[in-house]
Amino acid sequence: MAITFKVDSTTAEGTFIRVLRDGVPFGKILDAVGFYRFYEADREKLGSADLKDVNLDRLKTAIQSRYERG
Description:
By secondary structure, this protein is α+β, with helices and mostly antiparallel strands. It has 1 helix and 5 strands. The longest helix is centred in the C-terminal third of the chain and has 12 residues, at 56-67. The radius of gyration is 11 Å and the shape is globular.
């Protein structure tokens, strides 16, 4: 299952990146003041995230490592 990333929008508050699995929406990454949070599906929870990191590339690698299996 291939995980890919597509910048959906950028605002003054940050960037919204759509996470796709085999071309189908799977989750989202929100950039809030340089801190990136990944939410699987549409389960965004205030103050909580499935994965998070200050480095976007490292977060993308973590998402691929966790969700590209099987």
